[in-house]
Amino acid sequence: MSNQLIECVPNFSEGNDMSIIKQITDQIETVEGVTLLDVDPGKATNRTVVTLVGAPDDVLEAAVRAVRKAAELIDMSKHHGEHPRFGATDVCPLVPVSNITMEETVEYARKLAKRLGEEVGITVYCYENAALTEERRNLAVVRAGEYEGLKDRLSKPKWKPDFGPAKFNPKSGATAVSARDFLIAYNVNLNTTSTRRANAIAFDVREKGRKKTVGGTLTGKVATDENGKPVWLPGSLKCVKGIGWFIEEYGVAQISMNLTNISVTPVHVAFDEVCKNAEARGVRVTGSELVGLIPLKAMLDAGKHYLRKQERSFGIPDAEIIKIAVKSMGLDELYPFKPEEKIIEYAIATKAGKRLVDMSLTAFVHATASEAPAPGGGSGAAALGAMGIALGTMVANLSAHKRGWDDRWEEYSDWAVKGKEYHEELLRLIDEDTDAFNKIMDAFGLPKGTDAEKAARKKVIQDATVGAIEVPFRVMQKSYECLEVMKAMAEIGLQTSISDAGVGALAARSAVMGAFLNVKINCAGLEDKKIVEDFLTRGREIEEKAMAMEGEILEVVNKKM
Which of 306, 304, 295 is closest to 261 using CA atoms? Predict the structure, then answer.
């Protein structure tokens, strides 16, 4: 993958025939540099949500190939499903993931729309941020009338497509292309089979709300404004679209929502609001499901929301926070929730291959002890520092749970969160140190025949050497900084765990000293002596302060034991 990453989430109008879905996704996997993250078919909706990620141009090529195959295999004239749709590839949004702006993503979306129109012959409308006219920003407006109304719509000049033929193709229909922020497709399960009641709850919460009626809802007469247009009563949640439907596959009604801006309405807020409105209507929420992937932050925010309600520390591992979120929102009611498949950052990491930090402790020790030069002392120092602060974090979490200290749980939670941030950074540095070493080895393998090749090779080696110094230097900094947690826990933490704070301090100080050895040995290969002296001067200062802090912590620990 390149430095720029975008996500593409095409929705194909087939959710039952897995052989068709497989042929479409196989096309995606023919493009080098693109990772197929998720394939999520729905039988009742007869729709499959696919998620792929990669460098922008690679993602566009994969999308073109997939849409072309979908147009070959899916016949919209025979399609039936619960979800609104108007094409074999119904929607194909692009989402910026890293090192790319929304403005750049919009340009790629329009480029994709143009290619689909010209190369594949698909009727294409651009919506949301990629919309060419304000009237077409809203997908619901673009897709109004769905497939059944598309032929008539295409006969009107007002609805000439943005790209591709303005002639109705009964087999492939039309495709909507956009650039958008993360959209979470989220369904909440109800203990009812009534679509009517599910819709009522959906109208309560969705931003659009419901049409106002005159003389009570039983009359069915819609109130209008001075222009004769319906008056709408907005729902309680901003940036939320929603409908109610019955899912025969599971035998329950659901509130099906699109959360279009999770910074405005996070998933846990949507869940709680549906629970409140369902209860008011005599209906109970039994669980929920995610369609497609969700950002890690959204799951952590949800877990912390429910931890706060329980007055529990936030400084626990991400896996435990995610488990709280899953159980609180019933995300595993219909089928198991697998974080490595449903959380986008984890899915990308899984596809990228195994890291040192993913190894068991035994495997990591054996890898370090092998004849391979990496992982070495730098990774070992980072691991030592991570273990040290993990002990300090443990004391903070235990203190947050101590009976009689309930009014201080947030104080200890804050220390635990700080400790968690340190150990997560040190865990990342375990792999970064080995990566930095490998870059130096790769640089030495560059050609050195001509003078130009020699000069280029020398520069790459020197740049890689600076990187190999910076990583253990960051290990030093973080290992020293994390001593503040051990000191606080030695002074105010749970008395029965004070020895753990002491062991943590010993480990963190050793991590500082060990990482400094790696800084010094890598400095020997750097020709810029000014940079070398700067690293060594700052390194000596950190080492001295770490040793002094360790002494202060051990003095407190030994006095209290």
Answer: 295
